[in-house]
Amino acid sequence: MKELLSVITLCISYTWGQAYHSPPNILFIMTDDHAAKAVSSYNDNLIHTPNIDRIGKEGARFTQAFATNSICAPSRATILTAKFSHLNGQKDNHAIFDGNQQTFPKLLQTSGYNTAMIGKWHLKSDPTGFDYWAIFPGQGYYYNPDINTMGDTTQIQGYATDLVTDLAIRWLQKKWDKSKPFFMFYSHKAPHRNWMPALRHLDKLQDRVFLEPSAFWDKYDTRLAADSQLMHLQNHFLTAYDSKITTVNVSKRDSALWKLAYDDRLTPSEKAAWDLAYKDERLEYIQGLQSGKSKQWLNYQRYMRDYLRCVMAVDENVGRMLEYLDNNGLTEHTVVVYISDQGMFLGEHGWFDKRWMYEESIRIPLVIRYPKSIDPGQVRHEMVMNVDFAPTLLDFAGVPTPEDMQGRSLKPLLIGETELDWREEMYYHYYEFPFMTHVNPHYGIRNSRYKLIRFYGEVEGWEFYDLQNDPTEQHNSYYKDEYREEITKMKERLKSLQKKYKDFNPEE
Predict the structure, then answer these.
(1) The CATH number fitting domain 428-500, selected from 3.40.630.30, 3.30.300.10, 3.40.50.10800, 3.30.1120.10
(2) Which of the residues 197, 250, 252, 472 has the least number of beta carbons within 10 Å of its own beta carbon?
(3) Is cis: bond before 476, omega within 30 of 0?
């Protein structure tokens, strides 16, 4: 009886401390390449994501959240440091992140948080600022992946999206120092290429025929940079690795990548289930080619099915984490954020991948919940950049934001402060070239209606879009007289932003 009373007293004491005396816990959920249109609260035509939607319904959803360099490692470095790529040193995926620099997990850690990093890291150097970390080496594999736990790498059995959640819950159960609030960076590989769904989802969407987006057959008139890319569904989507079609001849590179993801990772029983599930879709693809259907369209159908199947597992596992918070009395005192590191083309312009300053690439989902401070059901239209996430979480934690961080806290918006002088434009700069997709370096500015982009390097030139009249960005209006005054203004604002963010202008 005494032992029972002691346990009850301890639980009451902990709950009281969490509810009234400590900063909030923070669960920071990030996925890779999750397009906003593949979240049902943003667009209900593709998929139902009730658990991700729940975060926004019980808190806030932002409709204009953007990545400032739409590629994996640079976006992650920007999120960690709240600095643009040219200042944090991570301009592309090839650089090694300098873990000695200031990051918001370090600031939380030194301010009394118990910190954990679990899942996809993708920054080459080991995580710093975390009391515990368990990460995928490199990109990680969907099936039976390797996990590097505090420097010790082992292979574990299971599906990556499920395993990340298993590890996250296990840390909360067994390793979290409950005398401190926690910060957990809970990071999924999915839905990153090559889109290998969980076995339980292989039979989903088999009969679904996806309508191609309005810019699917884009011809890139007046856009030289777009015409030189290597990310087209017709010509650059790999037959085995991407489309999972193994019954035709494939290139050596395609075969090698498929071997790494499939032959070297799946168990015999998983292979049998996989091949049985894909039998009809492979046949459908081959018959489609024989009947004269476009390879671009056939690859698009395969892409969308597998991409959305991967999102299904993400949403289920977000639900598992939210349920754990509910069942353990943590919901009211935990800030929950869901984001993607960048957007993703889902057939727009005939493309997969990201990188460009076009809308589908830079726009990201952002939902945030904290019952103690954020009124539910908010839909926010302010312009947000990924440099804002660190200041926001530090603000909720009561930790001062260093002056050299380049973002702004979203907390004042979320708790109802009025008369805020919020930004009216965002800045973008992409560097990686020519690796893989051959997207030329470019920088630019976007406001609520217009977008101005400057390409430099192998392809030189300007692009200008009126997002109200040309939302699919198929018509470069840079040379139209009717926009001359607006373009002049935006060039001046672009220079101003480059000065503000201490970025270079190649023309100066």
Answers:
(1) 3.30.1120.10
(2) 252
(3) no
